[in-house]
Amino acid sequence: MTGKERAKLRRLANTIQPIFQIGKGGIGAAMLEQLGMALDARELIKITVLETADLSAREACDALCKALEAEPIQCIGRKITIYRRNPDSPKIEL
Hints:
- The protein is α+β, with helices and mostly antiparallel strands.
- It has three helices and four strands.
- The chain has helices spanning 3-13, 29-42, 57-68, and strands spanning 20-22, 44-49, 71-76, 79-83.
- The mean pLDDT is 92.
Protein backbone atom coordinates (compact mmCIF):
# COMPACT_ATOMS: atom_id res chain seq x y z
CA MET A 1 0.00 0.00 0.00
CA THR A 2 1.39 3.38 -0.98
CA GLY A 3 1.52 6.47 1.19
CA LYS A 4 -1.12 8.23 -0.92
CA GLU A 5 -3.52 5.31 -0.54
CA ARG A 6 -2.97 5.24 3.22
CA ALA A 7 -3.50 9.02 3.42
CA LYS A 8 -6.79 8.70 1.54
CA LEU A 9 -7.95 5.99 3.93
CA ARG A 10 -6.96 8.15 6.93
CA ARG A 11 -9.08 11.00 5.51
CA LEU A 12 -12.04 8.64 5.13
CA ALA A 13 -11.53 7.29 8.65
CA ASN A 14 -11.85 10.77 10.20
CA THR A 15 -15.60 10.71 9.72
CA ILE A 16 -16.37 7.19 10.97
CA GLN A 17 -17.09 6.19 14.56
CA PRO A 18 -15.49 3.18 16.29
CA ILE A 19 -17.75 0.13 15.95
CA PHE A 20 -15.85 -2.28 18.22
CA GLN A 21 -14.15 -2.13 21.61
CA ILE A 22 -11.36 -4.29 22.95
CA GLY A 23 -11.57 -4.65 26.72
CA LYS A 24 -10.16 -6.83 29.45
CA GLY A 25 -11.35 -9.96 27.62
CA GLY A 26 -8.84 -9.24 24.86
CA ILE A 27 -9.22 -10.52 21.32
CA GLY A 28 -11.18 -13.76 21.05
CA ALA A 29 -12.35 -15.96 18.20
CA ALA A 30 -15.87 -14.49 18.28
CA MET A 31 -14.50 -10.96 18.04
CA LEU A 32 -12.25 -11.92 15.12
CA GLU A 33 -15.24 -13.41 13.31
CA GLN A 34 -17.31 -10.25 13.84
CA LEU A 35 -14.43 -8.02 12.76
CA GLY A 36 -13.97 -10.14 9.62
CA MET A 37 -17.64 -9.71 8.73
CA ALA A 38 -17.44 -5.96 9.39
CA LEU A 39 -14.38 -5.68 7.15
CA ASP A 40 -16.18 -7.56 4.39
CA ALA A 41 -19.12 -5.17 4.65
CA ARG A 42 -17.27 -1.86 5.18
CA GLU A 43 -13.58 -2.45 4.28
CA LEU A 44 -12.49 0.33 6.69
CA ILE A 45 -13.26 0.08 10.41
CA LYS A 46 -12.24 1.88 13.57
CA ILE A 47 -11.76 0.13 16.92
CA THR A 48 -11.30 1.48 20.44
CA VAL A 49 -8.96 -0.18 22.95
CA LEU A 50 -10.28 0.40 26.46
CA GLU A 51 -8.01 1.27 29.37
CA THR A 52 -8.86 -2.06 31.03
CA ALA A 53 -7.44 -4.05 28.11
CA ASP A 54 -4.34 -6.14 28.74
CA LEU A 55 -2.67 -4.97 25.53
CA SER A 56 -1.77 -1.61 24.13
CA ALA A 57 -3.39 -0.19 21.02
CA ARG A 58 -0.26 -0.95 18.95
CA GLU A 59 -0.15 -4.58 20.13
CA ALA A 60 -3.87 -4.99 19.42
CA CYS A 61 -3.45 -3.45 15.96
CA ASP A 62 -0.59 -5.81 15.09
CA ALA A 63 -2.49 -8.87 16.36
CA LEU A 64 -5.70 -7.94 14.53
CA CYS A 65 -3.97 -7.18 11.25
CA LYS A 66 -2.08 -10.46 11.34
CA ALA A 67 -5.18 -12.53 12.23
CA LEU A 68 -7.49 -10.78 9.74
CA GLU A 69 -4.94 -10.27 6.94
CA ALA A 70 -5.72 -6.55 7.04
CA GLU A 71 -3.64 -3.39 6.61
CA PRO A 72 -3.02 -1.09 9.58
CA ILE A 73 -3.99 2.44 8.60
CA GLN A 74 -3.72 4.40 11.81
CA CYS A 75 -3.09 3.86 15.50
CA ILE A 76 -3.45 7.02 17.56
CA GLY A 77 -3.97 6.92 21.31
CA ARG A 78 -6.48 4.16 21.96
CA LYS A 79 -8.05 4.19 18.48
CA ILE A 80 -7.12 1.73 15.72
CA THR A 81 -8.11 1.95 12.07
CA ILE A 82 -7.70 -1.08 9.81
CA TYR A 83 -8.50 -1.78 6.16
CA ARG A 84 -9.05 -4.93 4.15
CA ARG A 85 -10.15 -4.81 0.52
CA ASN A 86 -13.18 -6.91 -0.35
CA PRO A 87 -12.21 -8.73 -3.59
CA ASP A 88 -15.84 -9.54 -4.48
CA SER A 89 -17.30 -6.05 -4.27
CA PRO A 90 -14.83 -3.26 -3.45
CA LYS A 91 -16.50 -0.26 -1.84
CA ILE A 92 -13.50 2.07 -1.55
CA GLU A 93 -11.58 3.00 -4.69
CA LEU A 94 -7.88 3.64 -4.07
